[in-house]
Amino acid sequence: MPETTFRYRGFMLDVSRHYMPPEEIRKLLQAAAFLDMNRMHWHLTDDQGWRIEIRKYPLLTEVGAVRGDSFFGGTPVKERNSGFYTQEEIREIVRFAGSLGIEIIPEIEIPGHAAAMLAAYPAFGCCRNETEKWQDHVEISGGIFSSLVCAGSDGAVAFLKDILDEVTELFPFDMIHIGGDEAVKYRWRRCPDCRRRIRELGLPSEDALQRWLVLEIGEYLAGKDRRTVVWNDVLDGGLLPEYFIVQQWMGGEEKTRAFMENGGSVIRSDTAYCYMDYPYGAIDVKRIREMPRIPDYAAGLEDRLLGMECPLWTERVTDLDRAAYLLFPRLTAMSLRMKGEAEELDWEAFRDLVAEKEKELEQKTGLRGAPEAEWSLSPEEAEAERDAENRKIHAPEALPFVQKQDELLRIEKEERTQKMQ
Ligand SMILES: [Zn+2]
């Protein structure tokens, strides 16, 4: 492979919003291996479902893996709302991936996106006043919620470490992802235990409390010879030591750059190019070909860029056909960019190479991607696709949930501003 090949070439699969059976995951792994990818980031926990068996805490799956309805907009399918992977199934998938040269990075979301976790174990959530805990349920819509693990509770920190003990037993690879994105601090501002922790540690903010928790977990995992990966939001609480890995997805580019300048390593997953759940009207194959190989925040720090990863979030992905339609040929095109193999090709030659790879991939795996008409859209076609996706997200049955999220984000913004004054 060329010298410009990224070391980390991956995709991410969200199985919280919709469960995906092991045989389908194996098929995607085969496709990824065919594309010379070497990482799968497995997003196993979120507000809408906890999908990994943890033996010490059986309610995580008994309660947290079960969801009745979904209001993600335009996805009335219910078959895949519930389900989880037993530890034996996980070992089997890990073995299979390993045989293909793919390492799996499991993600346990901390401290936010924790509704399913806290629905199972409310004792590890925050207090809403002096005596009562918040009560959560497995969320049935997409978006951002206020559920956070309580950073003021020693019991909650021990609970997280217990979970990670089992996770690290199952996944023998170098990296463990602990999330960290979209953790609105509504509850931490109100929780007596979190307030006390902030006071005792002399922390300047709730973001700094998140950083404290992340360091606590990161050091614990470092003790097991693992590197901790976090979404870039965590840098809002201050710089992290260089043994962390930051996954850059949106915003905060200057903080990510500072982290890199300080010796930190970064995985690139910019929403502008890498999000495979976005419609082709937002990211088509031609756009992927035109993507700058090095993002601005990494200019001059190329050796700190481990590589790239393309997430597939599954709010509106309820079966393998839909997953394949969204992933291919965009992941195929991305794999060429990750390998640095097709940098000199003009659009027509790039498209022909992608078409050739697609044909072979379909023969090998049976996975069929989007038709060529979607690969390079006119501005009008692209806008129509984006509008259609927006209409799904804002479908009437999903709208009350969207409004509730907007209200939470409004309060969050207001309280942050007050604090800064
Ligand atoms: Zn708390």
Condensed summary:
The chain has 421 residues and is an alpha/beta fold.
Give an account of the 3D structure.
Helix content is 42%, strand content 11%. It contains 16 helices and ten strands. It has an eight-stranded parallel β-sheet with strand order 5-2-1-10-9-8-7-6. A two-stranded antiparallel ribbon has the order 3-4. Strand 8, helix 9 and strand 9 (265-268) form a beta-alpha-beta unit. Helix 1 runs parallel beside helix 3 and helix 5 packs across helix 8 (206-222). The model has no long low-confidence stretch (mean pLDDT 96). Zinc ion (ZN) is lined by residues 126, 150, 152, 188, 191, 193-194.
Descriptive keywords:
alpha/beta; eight-stranded parallel sheet; 10 strands; globular; binds zinc ion
CATH architecture: Alpha-Beta Barrel
In angstroms, what is the radius of gyration? 21 Å
For the residues shown, what is the average pLDDT?
Answer: 96
Order of helices and strands: EHEEEHHEHHEHHHEEHEHHEHHHHH
Shape: globular
Percent of residues in β-strands: 5-15%
Q: Helicity, in percent?
A: 40-55%
- Number of alpha- plus pi-helical segments: 16
